[in-house]
Amino acid sequence: MNFYPGPSKIYPQVKDYFNEAFEQGILSQNHRSPAFEAMYEETIEALRQWLKIPQDYTICFVSSATEAWEIVAQSLVKKKSYHISNGAFGDKWLQRTMLLDRGVFAHTFGIDDELIPEELDIPDICNAICVTQNETSNGTQIQPADIRALKELFPDKIVAVDATSSMGGIALDFGGADVWFASVQKCFGLPPGLCILAFSPFALEKSWKIDEERHYNSLPRLYENAQKLQTSYTPNTLGIYLMGRLAKELPSIEETEKRLNKQADDLYSYFENHSELSPLVSNPATRSKTVLAIQGQAEKIKSIMKKASSAGITLGKGYGQWKQDTFRIANFPSITSNEIADLKTFFDSL
Ligand SMILES: *Cc1c(COP(=O)(O)O)cnc(C)c1O
């Protein structure tokens, strides 16, 4: 059983989709051929329906969330960007942006602090706000409603959201921000090497104004290719195909969210009542529903990781400053309720 928060457990039906893709010959089709374009279009529309992405948002594919960080910095940050971060992935986004010679401002906050948009003092020079909706490193989340409130408070700024470890598991309010992206090896339960990037007409307009077209995946270029149902480079056709098949077959996102919320609440209360372990995050409003961080004494954590491994259970290691005294549990939709029950049985047996 695999509870690692990425690369994570792959949906079992992907094995059949993989064979289908092979047999249909789609994998050796030219990426400018009608066969590829039809598959691309089906995938985009299946994703749009399943995740409820607004009709006027462009959906395209890039290689990774790391690449999406760079695309935002290159194509949407004019001079400086404002980064809202409380963990390692938010910090990495800020660092990548700096390396591309954009100026950055950081708003850092604690794992139990909720985002209060009214309290943010965002300098005029920052035309983009970068938010990590679900911070995979410490199991925290920013409520989707707070992201919409942020955009409403700063309508002239681009709000870009990294939702890598939550998209596909919880219902996101795509209309509440301009740019959303997620690589698929986390909450989508797919093999790595693909990232979904969706952006609003406002983001597209901004990227035209900034007029940055030096990169193969500059936003205007991504848009032009998406209009033709193509990509700017030979893409991960297999990943796109698998994504489309999954999006057509999976239960509605509301149904999935309901199941994950219940599982997360059960697990949090289980560890709240545990004698030696407890949730790292104490504020229920900032606790992630898809990645749970559990804290204990370093020695205890070490022994649990070892016992889990012997029992054939992969837990997520602690990350960054929480490396020694936490482990993480992915509550991704590819993991079944039975597997979560078995995980509890394992903890009962310790
Ligand atoms: C895993 C992760 C990334 C990095 O994803 P890549 O596909 O390796 O680029 C970025 N942001 C968050 C929140 C993540 O969890």
Explain the overall architecture:
The chain is an alpha/beta fold and 350 residues long. Helix content is 40%, strand content 16%. Helix 4 links the parallel strand 2 and strand 3. Helix 1 packs across helix 8 (237-249). The longest helix has 20 residues, at 253-272. Pyridoxal-5'-phosphate binds next to helix 3.
Topology:
Layout lengths: L13 H11 L9 H18 L6 E5 L2 H12 L3 E6 L2 H12 L3 E6 L17 E7 L1 E2 L4 E2 L2 H10 L4 E5 L16 E5 L11 E5 L1 H10 L8 H9 L9 H13 L3 H20 L5 E2 L11 E5 L2 H13 L5 E2 L8 E5 L6 H12 L2
Bound molecules: pyridoxal-5'-phosphate.
Give the strand order of the largest sheet, numbering strands 1, 2, ... along the chain: 1-9-8-7-4-2-3
Biggest beta sheet attributes: 7 strands, mixed
Please give the count of helices: 11
How many E-type strands?
13
* Radius of gyration computed on alpha carbons: 20 Å
What binds here, in terms of ligands, is:
pyridoxal-5'-phosphate
Summarize the structure.
Helix content is 40%, strand content 16%.
Descriptive tags:
13 strands; binds pyridoxal-5'-phosphate; 350 residues; globular; 11 helices; four-stranded antiparallel β-sheet
